[in-house]
Design a protein that fits this description.
499 residues, alpha/beta, Aldehyde Dehydrogenase, Chain A, domain 1, 2 domains, seven-stranded mixed beta sheet, 16 helices, 38% helix, globular
Length: 499
């Protein structure tokens, strides 16, 4: 069994707290490594190293900082297969999905190469008599990010790439469930030319999180995870005077109008609902067909597709549709919610409760589930399941359908499938949800737009990546300058004498 480390000041460092978290192979259920859980003292030591290293990095020309990111992109492409395999081994994703995890992070890094343009200030000549004004975007100092298990490559890069491009140092606290890829990313950043101490990885649990939240040197905190923890980090970080950006849970609805291409809609739901075993904050977990006829056609199209899904370990090849969930506890919670759906009266059309994979009986595999006749008062509707479970809520009208999405406490993503441009336009304008797809099931914006939900899916004013990232990781300083003015005299060629 492997003992993992922290990555501090350019080196792998063993933990000293004496506490560890088991890192599982989700396909076999076996413990394959131990991650050290940092003490407050270990976190504070990493922050102090970052504090000392950051001023020189901030003083580095933005174009030179961007060149480090350029090299980092080359290294990510070089090691793509290696990173994907390590990610799949600890998370359970299929290899193509793991490579996609890395790729979506890489795209944000590519965007951040444009930091010199994004960091330009503003200038006003002659704002007053002999007065000029100009603004500068300057780094915050030491920043930090707390990232989830479900995207162990993408979300760390969404945070540390813009932070570092802006001239900050960054402390990454990844999920203790799959920490190997974040450690590998830190190594690659330094191979790309990043000075030691600018990107450090501290593994840990709540003690490490609280240490970051209460350390006065840390100027900002980014977080992605569940809503209760997002609320805690946001409240605590703000109370300690930090800039905080937290992204929480989701319950994403996809509305299927009667005029939709049903095969297209069904294919979209299969990928969006069951891809990555449903462990995505942008997964579609609620299908809302409008009208019973639309619902019946949708269920008829979905069932054979779901029954053909291939569930297995990443080692089984690229034709595997999804792998195990991340832990035994996650599996138990998913099955608990499935049981509650049955008990509360939903119709379980596809039952994956007895799914078992030969040779992997101890793995954390969950079979696909499809519910019909789900109502908004059921637990499987109100709670985020984070598993391969799709709920169908039948709506009598478009207004009822859009009301379901608008009334839910989460507002991360949503989609509508229709051929009607008027309905699509009305949906996009009215819906109170942050990311909207029109005939696109998972509307994750590209790197040069911002990612973020509404309602209880987000806490903070600025979104991830895109222009918002450069606003979040910098402060604006405005300078008003006035210089003495008058007639300028030429050079003196005689010896000055007293008068």
């Amino acid at each position: 069994m492997q003992d993992l480390t922290h990555y501090i000041d350019g080196a792998h460092v063993a933990g000293t707290s004496g506490r560890f978290a088991d890192v599982y192979n989700p396909a076999t259920g076996e413990v394959q490594a131990r991650a050290p859980l940092a003490s407050t003292q270990e976190v504070d030591a990493a922050v102090e190293i970052a504090r000392k290293a950051q001023p020189a990095w901030a003083a580095t020309n933005p174009q030179r900082r961007a060149r480090v990111l350029m090299k980092f992109v080359d290294l990510l492409n070089r090691d793509m297969d290696k990173l994907a395999e390590a990610l799949s081994r600890e998370h359970g994703k299929t290899l193509p999905d793991a490579a996609g995890d890395v790729q979506r992070g890489l795209e944000v890094v590519e965007y951040c190469i444009g930091a010199p343009q994004m960091l330009k200030g503003e200038y006003t000549d002659s704002a007053g008599p002999g007065i000029d004004m100009y603004s500068m975007r300057q780094a915050l100092g030491v920043t930090a990010g707390i990232t989830p298990f479900n995207f162990p490559a993408m979300i760390p890069m969404w945070m540390f790439a813009p932070a570092i491009a802006c001239g900050n140092a960054f402390i990454l606290k990844p999920s203790e469930r799959d920490p190997s890829v974040p450690l590998m990313l830190a190594e690659l950043m330094e191979e790309a030319g990043l000075p030691k101490g600018i990107l450090q990885v501290v593994n840990g649990d709540k003690e490490a999180v609280d240490a970051l939240l209460h350390n006065d040197v840390v100027q900002s905190i980014g977080f992605v995870g569940s809503t209760p923890i997002a609320e805690y980090i946001y409240a605590t970080g703000c109370a300690n005077g930090k800039r905080v950006q937290c992204f929480g849970g989701a319950k994403n609805h996809m509305i299927i109008m009667p005029d939709a291409d049903m095969n297209q809609a069904a294919d979209a739901l299969i990928g969006a609902g069951y891809g990555a075993a449903g462990e995505r904050c942008m997964a579609i977990s609620v299908a809302v067909p409008v009208g019973d006829e639309t619902a019946d056609r949708l269920i008829e199209a979905l069932v054979p597709r779901i029954e053909k899904l291939k569930v297995g370990p990443y080692t089984a090849g690229n034709d595997v549709d999804y792998g195990p969930v991340v832990t035994a506890a996650a599996k138990q919670n998913i099955l608990r919610l499935v049981e509650s759906g049955v008990e509360q009266g939903a119709k379980l059309v596809v039952d994956g409760r007895n799914f078992s994979l030969q040779g992997y009986e101890d793995g954390f595999f969950v079979g696909p589930h499809l519910f019909d006749n789900v109502t908004p008062d059921m637990d499987i509707y109100t709670q985020e399941i984070f598993g391969p479970v799709l709920s169908t809520v039948r709506a009598k009208s478009y207004e009822e359908a859009i009301g379901l999405a608008m009334d839910h406490e989460y507002g991360n993503g949503t989609a509508i499938f229709t051929r009607d441009g008027d309905a699509a336009r009305d949906f996009a304008n009215r819906i109170n949800i942050g990311m909207v797809g029109i005939n696109v099931p998972i509307p994750v914006p590209l790197a040069y737009h911002t990612f973020g939900g509404w309602k209880k899916s987000v806490f903070g004013d600025l979104n991830q990546h895109g222009p918002d990232a450069f606003k979040f990781y910098t402060r604006t300083k405005t300078v008003t300058a006035r210089w003495p003015s008058g007639i300028k005299e030429g050079g003196e060629f005689s010896i000055p004498v007293m008068e």
